[in-house]
Amino acid sequence: MTAVKFYQVGSRAVGNRLLDPAHRTRQADPQRRNALNSGHRACQGCGEALAARYVLDTAVDATGGRLVTVNATGCLEVFSTPYPESSWQIPWLHSLFANAASVASGVVAALRATGRPDVRVLAQGGDGGTVDIGFACLSGMFERNDDVLYVCYDNGGYMNTGVQRSGATPPAARTATTEAVGTEPGNPFGVGKDAARIAMAHDIPYVATATVAELHDLEAKVRTAMSIRGARYLHVLVPCPLGWGTGTAETVKLARLAQLSALFPVYEARHGTVSSVLPIREQVPVEEYLRPQKRFAHLFAGDGRPDVIAKLQEIADRNVARYGLLSEEH
Amino acid sequence: MDKPFAITLDVRTSLANHTGTWRTERPVYVDGVPPCSHACPAGEQVQQWLYQAEDGGYESAWRRLVEDNPFPAVMGRICYHPCESACNRGQLDSAVGINSVERFLGDQAIAEGWTLPEPAASTGKRVLVVGAGPCGLSAAYHLRRLGHAVEIRDAGEQAGGMMRHGIPTFRLPRDVLDLEIARLLDLGVTLRLNTRVDDLQQAMCEGAFDAALLAMGAPLSKRAYIPAGQSARILDALAVLGDVAEGARPQLGRTVIVYGGGNTAMDVARTARRLGADEAIVVYRRTQEQMPADASELEEAIAEGVRLHWLRTITQVTGTKLTVEKMRLDDEGRPHPTGEFEELTGDAVVLALGQDVDREVLQTLPGLVVEDGVVEVGPDLMTSVPGVFAGGDLAPSTRSATVAIGHGKNAAHSIDAWLRNRSVERVVAEPVDEEPVGYERLNTWYFSDAPHAVRPRLELARRTADFTEVVGGLDEQTALYEARRCLSCGNCFGCDNCYGVCPDNAVKKLGDGANSYEIDYDYCKGCGLCVSECPAGAIVLVPEDK
Amino acid sequence: MREQLEGSRAVAETIGRCRVQVVPAYPITPQTHIVEAVGAMAKDGTLPGCEFITVESEFAAMSAAIGAAAAGARTYTATASQGLLYMAEALFNASGLGMPIVMTVANRAIGAPINIWNDHSDAMSQRDCGWIQLYAESNQAAADLHVVAFRLAEALNVPAMVCMDGFLLTHAFEPIEVPDAALVDRFLPHRRPQQQLDPDDPVTIGAMVGPEAFAEVRYLAHSQLRRAEEVHAGLAAEWTSLTGRDVAALAPYRLEGADTVVVALGSVTGTLQDVLDERADGTGLLNLRLYRPFPNAAVREALAGARRVIVVERAFAPGAGGVVSADVQCALAGTDVEVSTVVAGLGGRPVTTAALHGMLDAAAAGYLPRFDFLDLDRPLVERELAHLRGGAS
Predict the structure, then answer these.
(1) What φ, ψ does residue B449 adopt, rounded to 5°?
(2) DSSP secondary-structure letter at A227?
(3) Is the pLDDT assigned to residue B305 strictly greater than 80?
(4) Residues B235 and B384 occupy one common structural domain
């Protein structure tokens, strides 16, 4: 059969019978690890549950199964390990809320000291556990260049405890501690941390952002990360239907819109410099991303808040400029 | 490992928690009706044979296609492809070139010598088919495959009907037509040419036929009264096309006026150009938007230099002078004379005003009801006479070869059911939902940008020089590419999205390819992500019945 | 072989001989000399195969230790005072997960006000975190107790902290016999983890446990900690047979027939021994080396014959009273023994023999208060109290 350039869905869908299995995602493989298996108690349509399986299945594959995971307290940990049920199929350790990165550093040291340097370590946590309470430990791990891949599943809030604001909550978003009331409804502007850029500032070998909507991209980044020794950071946007007020079936679509609107730039960086971006296929105005989310409903109710939306659009435009998200040149 | 109580848990323990109990609705895989299949008058399962073609399984694709339609090489040239008009991809970038892929498959079959499927065991029943046009031949094909003995009788010297006599060779080369007819006849269909059936009832009795299909078409040209002097040369489009089909090259003159706005008008205008006319002018009483000719035919005609006069009727022909009256449309789009006249010059006027059935022979069958110029039939295509069926241009229909082929198939199944004394059941599996799958049900994000491939065409200058086929076929690479542009509306094509996108790992993958997934309802929470992210809209949510 | 060594140095060398594999280290006065020495040994190969990690806080240190222990390594760290508090959450986590980490606590006061000198308020504040607590009265005992602690912790999968008085012990130079390598290897085998992170045998460590099972888990933890008393006794006996040195849970001095017994932990027991030798008046001393689990039965038996017990504590429970004395009172419940609490040596205040004599004289004369502070500047506190109460001068 002659080689054909174009496919219907080759580059985007999870798999495709027409594609060489080597070009399909790991998720398409009936032998995928299912590191996070069925029976967990995540909400319907949970982006974090999906992303965790995506990341870990790839990491397990990339390391030939020689992987252990350290998990911070949070939604992922709580819904996956309520005694007596665990949905993890891989070695897994949960200690505290703030210390996944430090615990992982200790695991790495122990693996070396006990003669198992081939076993790799992946630490993971939500945005709260990573950018707020876990930040010191994260920074310490980066600074030492410990051989840990830290994955942050960012749904923009402390969802497990009832949707409270974190340092990753986007501006104007409603949370239980930044209610949509008063003259400045929702989360204030001008606050919050860009964890990926801070990671880049540590000059660690690899930093990347990704979303649960672009599976090929996410898997490639996990593989790249696992091919590197040293501190690595992966920041994955994962919509939370409950916290965002979106339909359970819309999780992937919302993540896609976040990237297309440029509010969530997707890129890779090596030793502090951006090395590639995922170009925006067709840019959408931020409004298209915000409108389906009840946590932004106050921007559209009544006369709405076009001024706030405009400020969010400015942020998106800045991202486009800063990362070259519309350029084909990368 | 010695695990401390409750602190440390074993793997697989969560499988005890059947989260399927959370559901209020459940996803189910469906086989939706794609708009292409829905629109195909021949009832082809277009999406299904495109699916076969996509991985290079051209023979499988061809076999799927000929389940419904034995004439892909012909159709790939002359069908007006309502499938492409309905194709959802048209709303994304441009319709899939279904017609060009069908032609490719048809041409491959000819090149590779693939044969049609063997007929079933003989049923002992005999069916008479009157007319060897697309309807009759299609019906014969299906009846023969069902195991019945079939005899076609046609008044002409060769089989093919309008495919041979009405469609010029620059659209449909004769060798292609001959080959596909011969292949069909090789199944054991008896063909008696030069055999006009003058008395239907007698023919049926004498031949001990158990059922009959009337498929004589509408071979008579409609007439219009145009005052004309003796020197006026007024011809009939069907006659011209028929003569040319038999190899004649009538000299029509330098300027030929064609009166009419249908496909026949286009065909004869283009034929006129090839017969040496410098000018072929089509005069039509309404407008371009209203003309019945297919848009592609009009386009080809214009490309070949055919000119068009809209909103004109011919009121008189004297020698080479024609008087035409300008028309205007009222609010309902009906043309009315304006009283303004123009003059045209034409060496010949060819009338292409429509076709009629031959009522005379129909009258030989007592009890046969003919209304509005066509034979009246039920939804099963049976006429008012039990055991006698009718289809094609003879029955009420939008007149095209494709429709006729569809009638042939439907009639064959109706006849088969009638012969077996049971109600008509479709042989093709009925899909779950009948409404064709609309564009909004697809998730088109997953489809790559892939514009439509254009078929090669003869250079403009060469076209009117002779009767060489104008439109070429796609090469394999391009045909494959085109097939792969199919969005597979409403039908799984094995992209693995559902398998990948379930946060609860509740979709099982059983193999490679379409329809190889299963929902594990023990764990499915009914979130609907699989439904949203299925590019083809092949999964729907239905309420959970407790 | 006995050498003149700084206490911290002796501990560090002992740790080296215990073949620790992972040491996360964060500095805080007065433990720094320990981790610095261990770090140097790891770096120069004296302690081969040891991963020494300079972490960014004590919380990170204990967290890394948890990770290391969970991955099967023998793990050690050291801290004091504020540092111990900063890792408090992790202490409970370590014991809850069953991680046999050994840690030196160079006892130091807790601020505010900030104070870098010795008392027991740090370790006492964490007495219920589920760790074994051992108190060393001398640098020799400290060295010996660390070896025992590793074996004890790994046998039970309960973490253990060895407390030694900051500055008073850690920075004191004295003749110490660091247990030699062969001896330690005989006494302390390689760690065989009960559970660990292993790709060949995956498990989920650290599940969430709800009301239906939490009480049982905690009961089991309590039972396991109680077992430490008996296991320690066996190990102490073994250690004595190997070295001739005593590391038993209780170390009595002049206890036989004593009318008044002083109970104390740590280096103050050395001063107390000198005082009792001077008095020779039937006052005895009970040095407690094992504080958690609290050896109830053994303490009751040791003190049963006394009329009066004075618990000399280097910490107290503000608004309540004594800390160790509360445990002692519990152990003596139902007996007629009078128990007094004397809080001494807070924030590094020297505990003088004169003050101790004064305390014992007062006790003998019957006017030692039930709860007293040794050596308090009474005029000063009276003045300040007047300020606080009156408001007007």
Answers:
(1) -70, 125
(2) T
(3) yes
(4) no
Q: Are residues C117 and C256 in the same domain?
A: no
Q: Would you say residue C154 lies in a domain? A: yes
Q: Hey, how many other C-beta atoms are within 10 angstroms of the C-beta on A292? A: 17
Domain range holding B148?
Answer: 126-220+356-428
Nearest CA in chain A to B521: A38
Q: Do C213 and B2 touch (CB under 8 A)?
A: no
Q: How many folded domains does chain C comprise?
A: 2
Task: Name the residue range of residue C197's domain.
Answer: 2-243
The per-residue pLDDT for range C280-316, each reduced to its tens digit, is: 999 999 999 999 999 999 999 999 899 999 999 999 9
User: What six digits make up the tokens of A11?
Assistant: 């580059």
Q: Which of C205, C220, C243 is the last residue of a domain?
A: C243
Check C205 against A65: CB less than 8 A apart. no
Q: Do B183 and B203 belong together in one domain?
A: yes
DSSP letter (8 states) at residue C201: S
| Segment holding C9, helix H or strand E | helix C7-17
pLDDT tens digits, C101-141:
999 999 999 999 999 999 999 999 999 999 999 999 999 99
Q: Global pTM?
A: 0.92
Prediction ipTM score: 0.95
Q: What is the rounded CA–CA span in Å between residue B311 and residue B291? A: 11
Q: C194 to chain B: nearest residue by CA?
A: B2
Q: How many CB atoms lie within 10 A of CB C91?
A: 25
Q: How far away is chain C from the Cα of B512, in angstroms, using its nearest Cα?
A: 30
Architecture of domain A34-323: 3-Layer(aba) Sandwich (3.40)
CATH number at residue C207: 3.40.50.970
Q: Where are the domains of chain A?
A: 34-323
Please, which residues have CB within 8 angstroms of residue B146's CB and are 6 or more apart in sequence?
A: B119, B120, B123, B412, B413, B416
Same domain, residue pair B391 and B309: no
Condensed to tens digits (0 to 9), the pLDDT of residues C44-83 reads 999 999 999 999 999 999 999 999 999 999 999 999 999 9
Strand partners, C290: C134
CB nearest B505 (choices: A37, A88, A256): A37
Q: Which of B3, B8, B17 to mutate to test the interface with C (most CBs of C within 10 A)?
A: B8
Contact A4 B17 (CB under 8 A): no
Q: What CATH code is carried by the domain that includes residue B208? A: 3.50.50.60
Do C124 and C263 share a domain, yes or no?
no
Q: Do B340 and B364 have their domain in common? A: no
How far is the C-alpha of A298 from the C-alpha of A78, rounded, in Å? 31
Interface test with B, best of C97, C197, C203 (most B CBs within 10 A): C203
**pLDDT value at residue B423:** 56
Q: Could you count the other beta carbons within 10 Å of the beta carbon of residue B239?
A: 15
The pLDDT tens digits of the residues spanning C2-29 come to: 999 999 999 999 999 999 999 999 999 9
Q: Which chains touch A (3 or more CB pairs under 8 A)?
A: B, C
Q: Does C243 touch chain B (CB under 8 A)?
A: no
